[in-house]
Structures are given as C-alpha cells and as structure tokens.
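Tokens for chain A. Residues wanted.
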C-alpha cells in the first residue's frame, strides 16, 4: 500500500495542477505513517495540505480503510468488507479520466486474486511475517557471503544464523 500511495503521489506531482507540487513536496513520509504515529510537526503539515482535492489523500484514506478491515474479528465479515473496499477503490479510480489512482486499483486487484489467502488470515490467525523476517536474515547473510569460496560456506552460515546454533567456548 505504501508503494502504491507513493506512486499516486509522484503521479499527481507529475500531472501537476495549481499548487499540487507545493502541497506534496517533501510529504512522502506523511502518507506512510498512521495518523496516531505522526509527530506534532507532521500533523501540522498534514493539516496544511488540501486533502479534499488531492488524489494522494484519497489513496491514503483507502489505506486507512483497509487497515480498519484487518481489525474485524470475523472472516466472513472481513471478506464482505474487502469486496466493498475493492469496489470503492475501483469506482473511485474510474471517476478520474487519468490513471493516477491505478496503483491503488492494482492493490485491489491483487487482493481480489488472492482473496482466499487473505481471508485465511482471519481463519488461522497466521501471517507470513516470520518468513519475511527470516528471508531478510538470509538476504543479509547472502550479502556477507560474497567473499566465501563456495555455497557450502553460505549454507553453513545460514544454519548458524537461522538455526541459532552456538559454538561451545573453548
């Protein structure tokens, strides 16, 4: 979602319009944070932005609505709200003749394609956060392993790091 919002912001800056650049310059991090995590300075900056006419603000609103859906406890209700959210995003994007909101439509279509997996989050309570974290550790190890002579050393390092193996002290 954050990447999609940033694409919308950059597209809106490119398309221009009266005062758009002035409002959106140096605002990238405002749209990435949740409202409760904004500093006082960031809140003031966000208040100065005309959120009624900017598509970036609409994209941000779409993000916040999607986050609210993840607070729902029931899988059936979540699936219903996701369908409504998708419909809203696609309908809003169609209202505008230009394609600035297309990144948000892409997110909506991704959710539509993977709806069974998304709704499975409510049924099982599981996410892929652990695997993403482990992948991050593996990628860092691979970067360090560039100086190793063979893949055997890389695999050994992955076992030490991911397996949390400790060598006995001598």
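Reply:
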């Amino acid at each position: 979602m954050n990447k999609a919002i940033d694409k919308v912001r950059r597209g809106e800056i490119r398309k221009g319009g009266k005062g758009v650049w002035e409002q959106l310059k140096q605002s990238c991090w405002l749209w990435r944070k949740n409202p409760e995590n904004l500093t006082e300075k960031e809140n003031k900056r966000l208040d100065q932005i005309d959120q009624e006419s900017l598509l970036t603000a609409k994209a941000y609103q779409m993000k916040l609505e999607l986050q609210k859906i993840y607070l729902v406890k029931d899988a059936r209700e979540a699936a219903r709200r996701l369908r409504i959210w998708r419909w809203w995003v696609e309908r809003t994007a169609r209202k505008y003749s230009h394609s600035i909101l297309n990144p948000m439509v892409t997110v909506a279509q991704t959710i539509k394609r993977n709806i069974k997996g998304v709704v499975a989050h409510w049924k099982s309570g599981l996410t892929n956060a652990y695997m993403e974290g482990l992948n991050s550790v593996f990628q860092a190890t691979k970067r360090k392993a560039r100086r190793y002579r063979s893949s055997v050393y890389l695999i050994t390092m992955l076992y030490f790091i991911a397996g949390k193996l400790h060598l006995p002290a001598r």
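The chain has two domains: 2-124, 129-162. The chain has ten helices and no strands.
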